[in-house]
Amino acid sequence: MNVMTIPNIRYYACLTLCTDKGKSTPKYRITASAGYYEPMTALIGADHNISFYLLEKLREGDNIPSVWLQGKNSLNFTGLKEYFDDNGKLNGNAYGYPYQSKTYSTKKRANPFYEYRNDGYLFIIHQDTASTVTDEEQPQQITPTSIELLVLEGAKSLISSYCKMLAMGGFDDTITQLRTLAKE
């Protein structure tokens, strides 16, 4: 029997919704983390925090995930694959991986994640289920209250399988330990 083993988890972070008043684009700040992931230091902003914007693709038909996280200096941190299920509802889990090129943007900025391009990312998306969704609102339009990130070393090629494993509870014990170890 083939059993997938959990790869080395380099880093864990909890991203909490912190959108500024009057802004429509959801913004998340890392509020707790465990482990060390060196390229994340390049995303520390002027406020001494690491923040991401949750963005949606603007047009249909592009072969890119419908949602992605954008970091400091407009770095595409990762697309969130399988963010929505087949019915267009928030899935609860997603996966991604670092941007693959040495540079990004028209300014040819150095990609701090290039040396880590074979890592894989798993996401656990939390939404406030206590919120009342009106008839006009679609469930997929609810902004997540927090997003948990797991960085798996060298797991890019198997990350979609690890996402399925996450959905089936294969990471539950590990995630519980990481949440306990995470520091603000």
Could you explain the architecture of this structure?
With 184 residues, the protein is mainly β. Helices cover 10% and strands 29% of the residues. The strands form two sheets. It has an eight-stranded antiparallel beta sheet with strand order 5-4-3-2-1-10-9-6. A hairpin with a 5-residue loop joins strand 4 and strand 5. The chain starts with 8 loop residues before the first strand and ends with a helix. About 3% of the residues have low confidence.
Task: List its traits.
single chain; about 180 residues; mainly beta; 8-stranded antiparallel beta sheet; two-stranded antiparallel ribbon; about 30% strand
Protein topology:
Elements: E1 9-17, E2 27-35, E3 51-56, E4 67-70, E5 76-79, E6 93-96, E7 103-104, E8 109-110, E9 120-126, E10 146-152, H1 159-167, H2 172-181
Antiparallel strand pairs: 1-2, 1-10, 2-3, 3-4, 4-5, 6-9, 7-8, 9-10
Uncertain segments of ≥5 residues (pLDDT<50)? 131-135
Question: What's the β-strand tally?
Answer: 10
Helix content: 10-25%
- Count the helices. How many? 2
Mean pLDDT: 87
Percentage beta strand: 25-35%
Instruction: Indicate the structural class.
Output: mainly beta
> What is the quaternary state of this protein?
single chain
Radius of gyration from the CA trace? 16 Å
Shape: globular
Q: What is the succession of H and E elements?
A: EEEEEEEEEEHH
Spatial strand order of the main sheet:
5-4-3-2-1-10-9-6
End-to-end span in angstroms?
Answer: 40 Å
The biggest beta sheet, please?
8 strands, antiparallel
